[in-house]
Amino acid sequence: MNLQQNIIDKLKREVAPVTGCTEPVAVALACAKARELLDSNLIEKVSIKLSPNVYKNGLAVGVPHTGEVGLNIAAALGLVACKSSHSLALLNTVKNKDVVRAKEFLKNNNIKIAIEDIDEKVYVKVELSSKCASSTAIIQGAHDNFVYLEQNGNTLKERLSQNENKISKKDCIYNEKISNIITAIESVQLSEIQFLLEGISMNKKVAAYGLKNKCGMGVGYTLNSYLKDGMLSDDVIAHAERLTAAASDARMSGVTLPVMTSNGSGNNGLTAILPIVAYQEKIDVTEEKLAKALAISHILNSYVKHYIGRLSPICGCGVAAGLGAGAAITWLMDGTIKQIEGTIQNILGDICGMICDGAKVGCALKLSTSATIAVKSALLASKDQIIPAGNGIVGKTPEQTIRNLRDLANKGMEGADATIIAAMLPK
């Protein structure tokens, strides 16, 4: 399979809509599957074990339909109402009566949620039991990837050897130079990637909601209010900042609107798409160029996250999705490969230290920063203002810098997640 086809296949796998933050959604999905396997309507024991990253990202984020935050309500919805066949869209079908049932379940049952000491970034294990039945469901590697199913002691599915960082033949794009990836995308037919344009309308709706309604921290809403006073301008950078922040405000507060994800993350999807939308709303762009810019953004987000992990101590919205958006904007500005690579160097030289301290309403601030840095770095690189190699973790090539970032995330920040979780938990 050639590089171009690999890219198209990767985009079809990694760009998908979801309602709600993907970590609590994954917990709800695993709970729904385990409930379906349980040969009993009466659940007596619920044990949920999560990787530190899933736990961190699900602890304080809003869950759609419920008016609540956290993992317990997401798990309860999965146990009483959701269908696993709906995959990551399973919260779309939740009704008010389901929320009532879920809250009643929490009153009458003890859901035990614990952190599993595991290297996998994405890991959810749900074990259910009744007097005469038991079931187990494990998600690993990706938010909708079931690797183990068990019913009454009988193994139905087992693929526990998966390693998300192992490069398979279909993922060989991660060994490619970024310049080769961009060249391949440039020659893709519009019909092959036109589906990516759906993410624009979807994520713009979420942003519009956050601009009109003060939800979450109201970052986008508040910044937008300063336009009337002349305190802020309406340039590309400010527009990208407001759009992306407003969308995160809405999503992190649990607003029931789907977003287009990127590499399994809704906030990554917002950051990978909306700065490009901000540029397109200021500068006329053809549909074909817009689709290819989105392809560049999503693929580079996936590229970086392959090395640092789908979930990481470092904020993927900044160093991965923001990087993708910035590189795509440089490409839209007819930047050279050197300038596109320079945008990557500028972004990683700027915000490589932005930590991920869980999904929450405060993420709107980080997304606003990521969007700003994406556009600013593109503007600088397009004038050949590029951070030199040897400045911090910046290497001679963007590929080397990304590998340096990998080492920072996986070696240099070992133990960071445990420290962050300890700070997040009630004292």
Provide the fold topology.
Blueprint: H1 3-14, E1 17-18, H2 22-37, E2 45-50, H3 52-58, E3 62-63, E4 68-69, H4 71-80, H5 96-108, E5 111-115, E6 123-129, E7 134-140, E8 146-151, E9 154-158, H6 178-186, H7 190-193, H8 198-212, H9 219-229, H10 236-252, E10 259-260, H11 266-282, H12 287-308, H13 316-332, H14 337-351, H15 363-382, H16 398-412, H17 416-424
Parallel strand pairs: 2-5
Antiparallel strand pairs: 1-10, 2-6, 3-4, 6-7, 7-8, 8-9
Domain Serine dehydratase-like alpha subunit: 171-422
Protein name: UPF0597 protein PRVXT_001005
Keywords: Lyase
Q: TL;DR of this structure?
A:
This protein has 427 residues and is of the alpha+beta class. It has helices spanning 3-14, 22-37, 52-58, 71-80, 96-108, 178-186, 190-193, 198-212, 219-229, 236-252, 266-282, 287-308, 316-332, 337-351, 363-382, 398-412, 416-424; strands at 17-18, 45-50, 62-63, 68-69, 111-115, 123-129, 134-140, 146-151, 154-158, 259-260. The strands form three sheets. It has a six-stranded mixed sheet with strand order 5-2-6-7-8-9. The protein has a two-stranded antiparallel sheet with strand order 1-10.
Provide tags for this entry.
427 residues; alpha+beta; 60s Ribosomal Protein L30, Chain: A; 6-stranded mixed β-sheet; 17 helices; UPF0597 protein PRVXT_001005; lyase; UPF0597
Structure commentary:
Keywords: Lyase. This is UPF0597 protein PRVXT_001005. Residues 171-422 form the Serine dehydratase-like alpha subunit domain. It comes from Proteinivorax tanatarense. GO terms for molecular function: L-cysteine desulfhydrase activity. This protein has 427 residues and is of the alpha+beta class. The chain has two domains: 17-158, 60s Ribosomal Protein L30, Chain: A; 169-424, no CATH class. It has helices spanning 3-14, 22-37, 52-58, 71-80, 96-108, 178-186, 190-193, 198-212, 219-229, 236-252, 266-282, 287-308, 316-332, 337-351, 363-382, 398-412, 416-424; strands at residues 17-18, 45-50, 62-63, 68-69, 111-115, 123-129, 134-140, 146-151, 154-158, 259-260. The strands form three sheets. A six-stranded mixed beta sheet has the order 5-2-6-7-8-9. The protein has a two-stranded antiparallel sheet with strand order 1-10. A hairpin with a 2-residue loop joins β8 (146-151) and β9 (154-158). α4 (71-80) crosses α5 (96-108), α8 crosses α9 and α13 runs antiparallel to α14. The longest helix is centred in the last third of the chain and has 22 residues, at 287-308. The protein is globular. The N and C termini lie far apart (53 Å).
